[in-house]
From TrEMBL:
<dbReference type="GO" id="GO:0016491">
    <property type="term" value="F:oxidoreductase activity"/>
</dbReference>
<dbReference type="InterPro" id="IPR017938">
    <property type="entry name" value="Riboflavin_synthase-like_b-brl"/>
</dbReference>
<protein>
    <submittedName>
        <fullName>Oxidoreductase FAD/NAD(P)-binding domain protein</fullName>
    </submittedName>
</protein>
<keyword id="KW-0455">Luminescence</keyword>
<comment type="similarity">
    <text>Belongs to the Fre/LuxG FAD/NAD(P) flavoprotein oxidoreductase family.</text>
</comment>
<dbReference type="InterPro" id="IPR001433">
    <property type="entry name" value="OxRdtase_FAD/NAD-bd"/>
</dbReference>
<dbReference type="InterPro" id="IPR039261">
    <property type="entry name" value="FNR_nucleotide-bd"/>
</dbReference>
<dbReference type="InterPro" id="IPR050415">
    <property type="entry name" value="MRET"/>
</dbReference>
<dbReference type="GO" id="GO:0008218">
    <property type="term" value="P:bioluminescence"/>
</dbReference>
<dbReference type="Pfam" id="PF00175">
    <property type="entry name" value="NAD_binding_1"/>
</dbReference>
<dbReference type="InterPro" id="IPR001709">
    <property type="entry name" value="Flavoprot_Pyr_Nucl_cyt_Rdtase"/>
</dbReference>
<keyword id="KW-0560">Oxidoreductase</keyword>
<feature type="domain" description="FAD-binding FR-type">
    <location>
        <begin position="1"/>
        <end position="98"/>
    </location>
</feature>
<dbReference type="InterPro" id="IPR017927">
    <property type="entry name" value="FAD-bd_FR_type"/>
</dbReference>
């Protein structure tokens, strides 16, 4: 783990509640797709965010969900908006991409959990990986699925990738419900798959219980939340 000073190059809204931050580290950051960093707000105040960019990039991209003034995340957005530099610590996390696995993959995102999935998929597609991959992304409505256009483009361009958007609201032509239900409906057994998941802790916990019933092996289920759960 290293502490690195970064120049704040960009802070732009991706939706009403999600911001994209682009940082240039003053020294190279070595990390694996799917790992996360902490933004150093103070010596006793370090806030975790998935790295949305690929290790193939020189810059670091973050997707920050922040909708409430003075919230945990909005305080970070305000710091990024007002300062020219910020310190990070990285890398962290064991839910990184397993390049050596030959199993097909199911990638699951809830809300801004797509930032974690974005790092995995962006790396895989740019490296020419053609293993069968399913992407499930759950959000309240199309506006909340802040990079749906990119996911659609990936699925159109790469025939081995299937993208399944799932909405809380009823949206014509799309699945309604939860991503957990959608995955369990679509796969009789998860025994032979690697499953990567990011979203709220409650979602990750519920997913693990359901997916175990569908045959997933804990050794093939990856998510940062599981490091903090029994």
């Amino acid at each position: 783990m290293s502490r690195i000073r970064c120049q704040i190059d960009q802070l732009t809204p991706l939706s009403d509640t999600v911001f994209k931050a682009v940082l240039t580290p003053e020294q190279a950051l070595a990390f694996k797709p799917g790992q996360y960093l902490t933004v150093v707000m103070g010596e006793e105040d370090k806030r975790p965010f998935s790295i949305a960019s690929s290790p193939l990039d020189d810059q670091i991209e973050l997707h920050i969900g922040a909708s409430v003034a003075e919230s945990f995340a909005m305080q970070v957005v305000d710091r990024l908006r007002n300062d020219s530099h910020i310190e990070i610590e990285a890398p962290f996390g064991e839910a990184y991409l397993r390049h050596d696995s030959e199993r097909p993959r199911i990638l699951i995102a809830g809300g801004t959990g797509f930032s974690y999935i974005h790092s995995l998929l962006d790396t895989l597609l740019r490296q020419g990986d053609t293993r069968t991959t399913f992407l499930y992304w759950g959000a309240r409505d199309p506006d909340a699925m802040y990079l749906k256009a990119i996911a659609d483009q990936w699925a159109e361009r790469f025939p081995h990738l299937t993208f399944v958007p799932v909405f809380d609201d009823a949206i014509a032509g799309h699945r309604q419900g939860t991503v957990i239900d959608a995955v369990c409906e679509d796969f009789v057994s998860l025994h032979d798959y690697d499953v990567y998941i990011a979203g709220r802790f409650e979602m990750a916990g519920a997913a693990r219980e359901r997916f175990r019933q569908q045959g997933v092996l804990d050794a093939h289920l990856f998510g940062d939340a599981y490091a903090f759960m029994k």
